[in-house]
Amino acid sequence: MSKLKCPHCGSRGISVLRKMCLGxxxxxxCQVCGKKVGVPYTAMLAATPFLAAIVGxxxxxxxxxxxxxxxxGFVVMAxxxxxxxxxxxx
Length: 90
Known about the structure:
There is one protein chain. With 90 residues, this protein is of the alpha+beta class. It has one domain (3-89). 42% of the residues lie in helices and 16% in strands. The protein has 3 helices and 5 strands, in the order ββαββααβ. The chain has a 3-stranded antiparallel sheet with strand order 3-4-5, with no helix packed on it. A two-stranded antiparallel sheet has the order 1-2. α2 (48-57) packs antiparallel against α3 (63-84). The model has no long low-confidence stretch (mean pLDDT 93).
């Protein structure tokens, strides 16, 4: 799995999976320099597609459609988080 650049040292020390688990109050540690890295509070906006999928699924009857909507919302949320949420120093 590829690594992302640390805003402190500029080397690739943050894994993609670790960034996906980051939140505004949950920092990560760079594996190279050991300093804390986080995401801004606006990162919560990336969860909007998943939350919309959960709300929208209340109006669908077959469970397969609900589950498909949840998975689709999660995938869009993950893409938004990886593409537009920057890493910042903590």
